[in-house]
Amino acid sequence: MDDGVGSAAAITATGKKRPRLLRHTKSKPKEEEEEEKVPKEVDIEDLGFCRDETLEIRAFLLEWYDRNQRDLPWRRISSGDDEDGSERRAYAVWVSEVMLQQTRVQIVIDYFNRWMHKWPTICHLARASIEEVNEMWAGLGYYRRARYLLEGAKKIVEEGGVFPKTVSALLKVPGIGDYTAGAIASITFKEVVPVVDGNVVRVVARLKAISANPKESVTIKNFWKLAGQLVDPSRPGDFNQSLMELGATICTLLNPNCSVCPVSNHCRALSLARQNSSAQVTDYPTKVVKSKKRHEFSAVSVVEILEGQDMIEEFQPDGRFLLVKRPGEGLLAGLWEFPSVLLGVEADLATRRYAIDQFLKKSFNLDLKRSCTVVLREDIGEHIHVFSHIRLKMYVELLVLRLKGQRRVLHGEPDSKTMAWKSIDSKALSSMGLTSGVRKVYSMIQKFKQNKSKPIPGKTRKKKPPSS
C-alpha cells in the first residue's frame, strides 16, 4: 500500500486529496546511481522471451546458421524435406547425437563414418552383437551409450521397424531421453520441440543472465521452458541446431566471441558486462563445483601363456594373452580387459601379487606353483585412468607363464558361470576394439618388451648350442 510519501498526490479513504508531503533527501553517490542502472537479476521462473525478441532471435540465428553451419556427415544425411529416407535420417541423427554426448565433434566424425559404413540402417544394427558394437565404440568412452543404441535398435525392429516420429514415442525406446528425443523429432520429423544440452544452457543462460544453479532440477526445467519459447515453428530442427552451433562455436565456455554473435543485442549477460566492469559474460551459467572423484586402486596382470616348450626366449610370437569380460552391469559393462583385482587401498608389490595369484587360482585354476611355470614376472609401472567419477590407479605387471600339461584350462570353455574369458594372440589383441585404459596397459607391455629385447651395448647374447 502506498503511504503517500513522494507521490504527486494520494487518495484518502474518503476520496479527497490530501496535501503533498515534501521531504528533503540526500543526493545519492555517483557509484550508487551507476549501480542502479545495471539491470537487476530476475528469478528464473519469472523470465521469458517477449514476442518481438523471440522473432528477432529466430530470424538472426537461422540466417547466421544458414551461412556458417559446419559441414558434418550426419547433417548431409539429415538434410532435405523429402519423405523418402526419413528413416535413415532419423537413424543418423540418433547415432550422431548419442556419440556427441560427452565427446568432441572432431573425434566423433571418424567414429560416425565407420559406424554408418558397417551398419547403414537400423535393421543392420539390430543384427549386430554387443561385442561388435563395443569394438566399434572402443575409445569413445561412456560405453553404456553403445549398449543402449543396440538395445533401442532391436526394440524398434522387433516392433515393426518403423522409426518413432514424436518425442512421446521416442521416449519409449531404451536409452533415448528428452534431449535425444527432441533432436530426432525436430531435426528429422519437424516436431516443434526444444532440445537442451550444455551448449543451449550456456546460450540461454547468457541471453537472460540466469545465475541459478544449472544442475538443479527446477533450473533445468526452466531452461527447457525458455528454449521451447524460442523454437521456430517452421524450421524447428534447424533452429535447434543453430542454438547448439552457436554455443559450440561462438558462445563458448571460456572465450565467447561476442563481437560476431548474431544475437548479441539480446544478450543480457553482455549488457551487464558492458555496464559493470566487474561482470563478465562468462559468469553465466553459474559454475558448479564438481564433486571430488573417488580414488580406486587395482592390480592388473597381463598374463601371457607360452605355447612351446623352449625355455630360452621370454617373449615368443606364439604367446596367447588372457582376457576377461567385465560383468554385464556397472562400469565398462561387458567389455574385455586383462585380469585385474580391485585393492581398496594403495598396496605394496607383495600384496598386489598375492591378490592376483588368488584371482587366477580361483577363476582359472592357474596355480603358479603347481600348474604352471613362471617364465617372467615383472612390475611394469603405474597408469592413472580418469573416469567421470573415479580416479583409478592401475598397478601393471607382466606375467609370462608356461602351462604344465593343462592347456585345456585356456582352450576350453570358461569354468565360471559368472565370468567369461578368452585367450588370443598378439595380432588379434592389437586389432581388437579395447577401451583406452586397456590399450594403454597393453602399450606399456609392448614398450617394456621392446626395451628389454634391445641388445646392451658392448655385450652379445649367447646362443644355446644345438643339441647333439
Q: Your description of this structure?
A:
With 468 residues, this protein is of the alpha+beta class. It folds into 3 domains: 71-191, Endonuclease III, domain 1 (Orthogonal Bundle); 194-289, Helix-hairpin-Helix base-excision DNA repair enzymes (C-terminal) (Endonuclease Iii, domain 2, Orthogonal Bundle); 294-453, Nucleoside Triphosphate Pyrophosphohydrolase (Alpha-Beta Complex). It has 18 helices and 7 strands. The chain has helices spanning 30-37, 51-68, 73-78, 86-100, 105-118, 122-126, 130-137, 144-158, 167-170, 178-189, 198-207, 217-230, 236-249, 268-275, 349-364, 408-411, 426-431, 436-453, and strands at 294-306, 320-325, 336-337, 340-342, 372-386, 390-403, 421-425. Strands 1, 2, 3, 4, 5, 6 and 7 form a 7-stranded mixed sheet that branches. It is elongated, with a radius of gyration of 31 Å. It starts with 29 loop residues before the first helix and ends in a 15-residue tail after the last helix. Mean pLDDT is 85; it is low at 1-26 and 33-39. Its cofactor is [4Fe-4S] cluster. It is found in: Mitochondrion; Nucleus. Its EC number is 3.2.2.31.
Give the mean pLDDT. Answer: 85
| Class by alpha and beta content | alpha+beta
CA radius of gyration is 31 Å
Provide the CATH topology of the largest domain.
Nucleoside Triphosphate Pyrophosphohydrolase
Shape: elongated
Number of helices: 18
Number of domains: 3
Proportion of helical residues:
40-55%
List SSEs in N-to-C order.
HHHHHHHHHHHHHHEEEEHEEHEHH
Question: At CATH's second level, what is the architecture of the largest domain?
Answer: Alpha-Beta Complex
Give the name of the CATH superfamily of the largest domain. Answer: Nucleoside Triphosphate Pyrophosphohydrolase
Q: Which stretches are low in confidence, meaning pLDDT under 50 for 5 or more residues running?
A: 1-26, 33-39
End-to-end Cα distance: 115 Å
Sheet bearing the most strands, described?
7 strands, mixed
CATH class of the largest domain: Alpha Beta
Q: Kindly state the number of beta strands.
A: 7
The fraction of residues assigned to DSSP E strands is: 5-15%
Domain HhH-GPD: 99-249
GO cellular component, one term: nucleus
Subcellular location: Mitochondrion; Nucleus
InterPro entries: DNA_glycosylase, HhH-GPD_domain, HhH_base_excis_C, HhH_motif, MIG/MutY, MutY_C, NUDIX_hydrolase-like_dom_sf
